[in-house]
Amino acid sequence: MTTWPIGPVCQSCYTAVVRSPAECSGCHELHPLIARDKRGAGLCGPCAGHDVDCRCHQCGRSGNPYGRGRCAHCVLADKVNDLLAGPNSTVPAQLQPFADSLISTHTPFKTIQWVHEHPNAKLLADLVAEGREISHQFLDELAPSAALQHLRQMMVQTGVLSERNEDIERVPAWLEHHLADKPVEHANLIRPFLHWHLLRRTRHRATRRAVPTTAGRELRRRILVALELLTWIDAEATTLADLRQDDLDRWLDDEKTQRRNRVRYFLGWTADRGLSRQLTVPAIPRQEPAEFLDDDQRWHLLHRCLTDQTLPVEARAAGALILLFGLQTQHIRHLTADQLTEHGDDTYLAVGQHPILLPPRLGSLLQSLASRPPKPLMIPHGPNTPAWLFPGRIPGQPIDGTQPHQPAQPARHQRPTRPQRSPCSPCQRPTRRHPRRPARPPRQHRSPLGYFRPTRLDRLPRPPSRRT
After folding, report:
1. Dist. CA 22–CA 9, nearest whole Å
2. For 64, which DSSP code?
3. What sign does the CA torsion over 380, 383, 384, 388 have?
4. Which of these, 383, 326, 384, 381, lies nearest to 351 by C-alpha position?
5. Model pLDDT for residues 314-349, shown as the tens digit of each residue
6. What would the pLDDT profile of 128-164 be if each residue is shown by its tens digit?
7. Among 115, 271, 336, 423, which is disulfide-ready with 386 (CB 3.0 to 4.6 Å)?
8. Is there a contact between 329 and 322 (Cβ–Cβ < 8 Å)?
9. How far is CA 45 from CA 11, 126, 406, in A?
10. What 3-state class would DSSP assign to 342?
């Protein structure tokens, strides 16, 4: 516990104050405010006459002390330079914008931890140690992973790499790693099928209209089904050119799902080039919902989304859009603030060709999402990033629609604690952080006869000694 002019301060409040310098009402400079004047305004240590000085001995900045008289920003600058230093012990000019973004972060302590512990930092150090220029082609040679995708987006947002349609353009790199253990004959068929047919059509469609957010996933599914068919053909001791309709029907009926019906794109491409016969694959019918909500359930959920203050604002807004207009989650996560317009007291959402008039409560929810400040990220969203209504943790990307929302964890101070005489002055919580545990009863062991006896045998009454 620390004692300041405002009174006793617990460890949590001490950390929050020294890491959040604000303008002092006395000197009008940024310092940790540890006291208050007669009007209740915050004062720093020197203005309050208290021997507390959080200035950095290196840069003179106040707040965020790290150790040995230095602030976290100066320590972070040294660690980032050590991380990104190339073979000549200097940061390459290409990575200098990335280094500047890390150093100027609003969360220096979290960034220091990222440099020390995160797998992306180790991956970045390995890439710099090779001495090659970092490009999309260089990163495509590495095994696809979530860490590599996050690191790539960080470099795109800082200007190190050019921006591209990542959902589509990373499919070729995924295919090369997926074909590593596949027969050469299969790879020679799948590569042109992807590059000359699937990717060509998808890129051409992207120049005319917006590409669906699941385009990359759909391309991978068609590739996997085609490889599965080629593997089955080898197991049946036949060839693609000799594949007959009854053989194809038997393969389609082996699995009681419609997933294999995506092979129609591969077989259509091979038939046009004379590699297989003209075979018929049923089209995937439109999927209908398996369960329906009745009117009472729908109105109950809608009323909860619009009025329940305990739910997160993101979950309330997304749930109301689904229940009212039937929007898909992939469409909702890509909504931007520019799609909201106001005309008088009415709020409209531009979805498709015509704007939608929103109910007042839903309009206020979406307006609160559009006006709230961005989440503090280690690498902030770039200037060209759309103002997402549902921003994600990856720079430049909206929220990930595949992961469910994680409810907020209860506050640490809500745990039961033992009251103290001097509570923390800023938060008025007991300064003791952990509750006192009740004393454990002494262990007891069962004797061979079934009775309990204490562990400490020396506490038993001793029998009288028998002397002969």
Report:
1. 18
2. -
3. positive
4. 326
5. 999 999 999 999 888 888 888 999 999 998 889 999
6. 888 888 999 999 988 888 888 888 988 998 889 998 8
7. 336
8. yes
9. 18, 44, 40
10. strand
